[in-house]
Design brief:
The complex is a heterodimer of chains A (302) and B (305). Chain A is mainly alpha-helical and 302 residues long. Chain A is built from seven helices and four strands, in the order H-H-E-E-H-E-H-H-E-H-H. In chain B, strands 6-7-8-9 form a four-stranded mixed sheet. Classes of the chains: A mainly alpha (302), B alpha/beta (305).
């Protein structure tokens, strides 16, 4: 039964991802060269699979919050009209499977433009928050890294040699004969799966503004067509080829993360999710996003 | 590593550069339809420009790489704190007349490495690990031979790669690197690290990757390393950027590797700032959902049970 459930779930997951897989098959066909194929299709798949999904979850969340607020206001009005003492009442809870949307559940994978001219060459300069670093000038002393790495090797070896307990489950067997038999087996015996983040840990720089939080980026690109024109022109002006190249070759700012039409206030996970929602809902913004994805090369699927 | 070194002035900026694919066979004025290696162009549009032609399908000319790095040195070197460099430092295997060899792949990687050392290293220091701008490279699927295939170390490839990157990799990580070709650099000592993750162990196009569940799987072993490193960085109060060549999305990773990798990034969200990847040549972002990953891992465990 578990197999069947797992298989059907897998199938539906695969359906979701098939489109993106097909669209990106072009990437595999392209492995032997750099000519872009079906990239617009791929970007559409990204929008469909990821951004639309986030937009729909965020919108659901918004409508639930609005409904809850309205319910609460109605209850308060009713209480006031009846002249009774104000009682705190919770808004109705939404029934159904919808889980609460939280930006904490997401991690952002940043995928970069290449230097190879699949489109125009490019790279990115990230800016991050340094405020508070000066207050951390006192560094605690930890054991040297070489000691850590010696231990690490032992730990990994031990973990890999523990063949009797492929998932740690058989490892609990001797407990039956010991006084510790009442102890619950470990919840995460597979060491390739992490334990849950301890509850007392605060969200890091990717989620809340703090030291090292990314704040902005500048995307640079080299407009190859323009560079070649300038280079040819400089050659015609009797410049030496290397001089002409030095004069013509330059990177320019393609855009910044805070530029129109979708300026991001910062680069926290919630900002990316908000951008995903905008990209899902606004075709004009989407067009700009795709043009930037292709480094303003004007690329279109054939 | 930084003992005795005066503290660097920080600017709050860093560079991410990827997929340079320099091609020593690139010839200006050759035919684009013959991968810019040879032949008379059919017309003006078919002629390979000195710095390349967008969307034409050729690799980078050596000039494109050299002038790019020169531009970075002239305009950014003094304004950035570190460089994340996510691989693919050699041409594609797209010309039957000149197939790539392992020696050639290492050779060009070595040349590019030397260039980074020369441009961003600290010239007055006797310590080769001392950089004005620390550089954190990671391995691309084109940097290995055969294409995409990379096995668990220690192997000749991991040893050769260590030799090429020895100035970028902290010495105490030599053995760990020999095993998994991953490492990290404290780009701001004691405060901020960049992890260079060998994503080829999670990449489904690597014929040696079946899943991340078996202990002999390279991905499983990579995740063990990943977990111990993250835990240690957390205990030291450090924050970390993840970096690697192949982006951790379902299209690229085996399902179990994708799920487990996503879980680690989620459960260490108190220290992980984000992830920087290359490989796909397009500027975009993908939000990955950890709840979905937890669900998938639980179901897989159920099925296994």
């Amino acid at each position: 039964q578990a197999d069947e459930i797992s298989q059907s779930e897998k199938d539906s997951e695969l359906d979701d991802e098939n489109w993106i897989g097909d669209a990106a098959a072009a990437s595999d066909a392209r492995l032997m060269g750099a000519k872009p194929v079906n990239k617009e299709n791929y970007m559409d798949a990204v929008r469909e699979t990821y951004y639309n999904n986030i937009a729909s979850k965020m919108n659901k969340q918004t409508s639930v919050v609005v409904e809850e607020q309205e319910d609460l206001m109605n209850v308060e009005k009713k209480v006031k009209c009846q002249g009774k003492k104000h009682k705190k009442k919770k808004g109705k809870k939404k029934k159904g499977k919808d889980e609460k949307f939280s930006s904490e559940d997401y991690c952002i994978v940043n995928i970069a433009t290449s230097v190879i001219p699949t489109f125009n060459p490019g790279f990115r300069v990230w800016e991050y928050n340094l405020t508070g670093l000066e207050d951390m000038s006192e560094t605690k002393i930890y054991k040297p890294w070489n000691q850590f790495f010696e231990k690490l090797e032992e730990k990994i070896e031990a973990e890999l040699e523990d063949d009797l307990a492929p998932n740690g489950r058989l490892g609990t067997f001797p407990l039956l004969f010991s006084n510790e038999r009442q102890k619950k087996p470990e919840r995460n015996p597979d060491k390739s799966i992490p334990s849950k983040m301890p509850k007392d840990r605060k969200l890091g720089p990717g989620y809340e503004p703090q030291l090292f939080s990314p704040t902005r980026y500048v995307q640079y690109y080299a407009n190859l067509e323009k560079i070649d024109k300038d280079y040819q022109k400089a050659l015609k002006n009797h410049l030496d080829p290397d001089e002409a190249a030095s004069q013509a070759f330059k990177y320019e700012v393609e855009y910044t993360s805070d530029s129109e039409p979708y300026p991001m206030p910062s680069l926290l996970t919630r900002d990316y999710l908000e951008l995903a929602r905008m990209l899902s809902e606004d075709d004009r913004i989407w067009q700009t996003f795709v043009a930037r994805a292709f480094s303003l090369s004007g690329y279109r699927d054939e | 590593r930084y003992k005795g070194a005066s503290p660097r002035k920080l600017h709050g900026r860093f560079l991410h550069i990827t997929d340079m694919h320099p091609d020593p066979y690139y010839k200006e004025g050759s035919s684009i339809s013959r991968v810019c290696h040879r032949g008379k162009p059919k017309d003006e549009k078919d002629s390979a420009a000195r710095f390349g032609d967008a969307t034409a399908g050729c690799d980078s000319s050596m000039d494109l790489m050299n002038y790019t790095l020169k531009w970075i040195v002239d305009n950014l070197r003094d304004k950035i704190d570190f460089i994340v460099w996510t691989g693919d430092n050699i041409r594609h295997d797209n010309d039957r007349n000149v197939p790539r060899t392992e020696a050639q792949i290492f050779d060009v990687n070595e040349q590019v490495s030397h260039l980074f050392e020369k441009l961003f290293g600290k010239h007055d220091s006797i310590d080769p690990h001392d950089f004005d701008v620390p550089v954190v490279p990671s391995i691309g699927n084109n940097d290995v031979f055969p294409h995409n295939l990379f096995s668990l170390g220690p192997t000749l490839q991991t040893r050769e790669l260590y030799n090429i990157w020895s100035s970028f990799i902290p010495q105490e990580q030599q053995r760990a690197f020999a095993r998994g070709a991953s490492f990290f650099v404290e780009v701001i000592p004691g405060k901020l690290a960049v992890l260079s993750i060998n994503t080829l162990y999670l990449y489904k196009a690597n014929p040696l990757v079946d899943n991340c569940n078996g202990k002999k799987q390279p991905g499983y072993q990579l995740l063990l390393w990943f977990g111990y490193i993250l835990e240690e960085l957390r205990s030291r109060g450090m924050k970390v950027w993840l970096s690697g060549h192949v982006p951790p999305i379902l299209k690229n990773f085996d399902q179990s590797c994708y799920d487990k990798f996503t879980l680690w990034t989620h459960e260490y969200r108190d220290i992980i700032i984000g992830g920087l990847y290359g490989h796909m040549n397009m500027d975009h972002f993908v939000p990955v959902n950890s709840k979905k990953a937890w669900k998938s891992v639980t179901e897989q465990s159920l099925a296994l049970a």
